[in-house]
Amino acid sequence: MAKKFSVLVNKKWCKGCGLCIAICPKKVLELDSRVKCEAARQDDCIGCRQCDNVCPDFAITVKEREENA
């Protein structure tokens, strides 16, 4: 079974720069109506953590989901 990941965004820290959206190979992220990053397609995340690494505001955390969650 493939691993599942959760992308957590701290909206208080996000300034909507879009770097995470541009770098995500699976297009998991997009900007919401307040121009803050959100994980619109959580189930598509492959856990590469590129968004986490590129975020200048440390607003993104990628975690592996528990199997029974």
From TrEMBL:
Keywords assigned by UniProt, alphabetized: 4Fe-4S, Iron, Iron-sulfur, Metal-binding
Tagged with keyword Iron-sulfur: yes
UniProt keyword Iron, yes or no: yes
Pfam families found in the cross-reference section: Fer4_7
Superkingdom in the source lineage: Bacteria
Domain 4Fe-4S ferredoxin-type, residue spans: 5-34, 36-65
Any GO MF annotation of the entry: metal ion binding
UniProt-listed PANTHER family: ADENYLYLSULFATE REDUCTASE, BETA SUBUNIT, BLR5484 PROTEIN
Protein's recorded name: 4Fe-4S ferredoxin-type domain-containing protein
Organism this protein belongs to: Thermanaerovibrio velox DSM 12556
Lineage, uppermost ranks: Bacteria, Thermotogati, Synergistota, Synergistia, Synergistales
